[in-house]
Amino acid sequence: MSADDFDEFYRDTSQRLLRYAYGLTGDAGDAQDLVQEAYARAWQRWGRLIRYDDPESWLRTVVSRLSTDRWRRLRVRRAKAGSVAQPATAPAPSEDTVLLVRAMRRIPPAHRRVLVLHYLLDRSVAEIAVETGASTGTVKSWLSRGRAGLAAAIGADDSSPLLEGDRHAGRLG
Question: I need a labelling partner for 96 at 20 to 30 A (CA). Which of 50, 75, 104, 106 fits?
Answer without folding.
Answer: 75
